[in-house]
Design a protein that fits this description.
This protein is mainly alpha-helical. It is 48% helix and 5% strand. The protein is built from 13 helices and two strands. The N and C termini lie far apart (58 Å).
């Protein structure tokens, strides 16, 4: 078995520091990234998926296929390992460098010098679940896959990736870290498509603020998906009444 490799933590951090200081930006436009092989170590518990690169589709429309391919390529990856910045930095700079470059090709433009563009797409930062091109895909599947559905186990993953609003706003709330809450929310939306018919950006924010408020009085991680679906079903008239915008710091009366 060929084992998966990763960067040493200090080396991964040094690559990020170089970019933050405007150094080596031109390297991201090359055909392959010239990393230091002496700074690479093995992950004995993970197998290197040789076929993964060919399965990744570098387009917005291909994100679902890419997410599934990535998730299935690392069946033994734990949430703890998936929180390791060095691991994802290795994948974006080595194993899946071509995919990331093709997905975000501005680095190949003449005179490219956008520091944030490289930081957002090649490194695992504070907004990893929203913008990281690889880590986010793994986490999206991890939070939505339902093994009890058998062949249709990626039903909620497909729904999640079908609307960009979930990636840009929903995932920034802590409620998005609770799998049963996510699935309960999606079950509600799938059964009540009229909620998404208009003003969904505002309605999604209204709903996520409500669910997060529930977290102040209930231990959300212990509640089943049915609880969340039932709560939102009761709240539906108020949800449909939302037609404008809901600001992050706006107080909402849910009574």
């Amino acid at each position: 078995m060929i084992v998966q490799h990763t960067f040493k933590k200090a080396y991964a951090e040094s690559l990020a520091d170089d970019v933050k200081n405007g150094r080596n930006l031109d390297l991201y436009g090359l055909e392959s990234f010239p990393y230091d092989p002496e700074q690479v170590v093995m992950i004995p518990t993970l197998r290197y998926p040789e076929e993964l690169k060919q399965k990744m589709v570098p387009t917005p429309q291909g994100d679902f296929a890419s997410a599934i391919a990535l998730y299935e390529a690392y069946p033994g990856l734990t949430p703890l390992q998936a929180s390791d910045k060095a691991f994802w930095t290795y994948l974006t700079h080595v194993d899946l460098f071509e995919y990331v470059q093709a997905r975000y090709p501005k680095v190949k433009e003449e005179g490219f010098d956008n520091v944030n563009y490289v930081l957002y797409h090649w490194f695992y930062g504070s907004d990893w679940i929203k913008v990281h091109p690889i880590a986010s895909l793994w986490w999206y599947v991890h939070l939505t896959v339902d093994e009890s559905l058998g062949k249709d186990k990626y039903k909620y993953t497909r729904f999640f990736l079908s609307n960009y609003e979930f990636r840009t706003n929903f995932v920034q709330y802590s409620i998005a870290r609770h799998k049963e809450a996510v699935i309960g929310y999606f079950d509600f939306l799938m059964d009540n498509r009229d909620v998404m018919a208009q003003s969904f950006k505002a309605r999604n924010r209204f709903i996520t603020k409500y669910l997060n408020k529930l977290g102040g009085s209930k231990l959300l991680s212990t509640l089943p998906r049915e609880f969340f679906k039932e709560e939102l079903t009761k709240l539906k008239p108020q949800i449909l009444a939302v037609t404008g915008t809901v600001k992050d710091d706006e107080e909402i009366d849910f009574e």
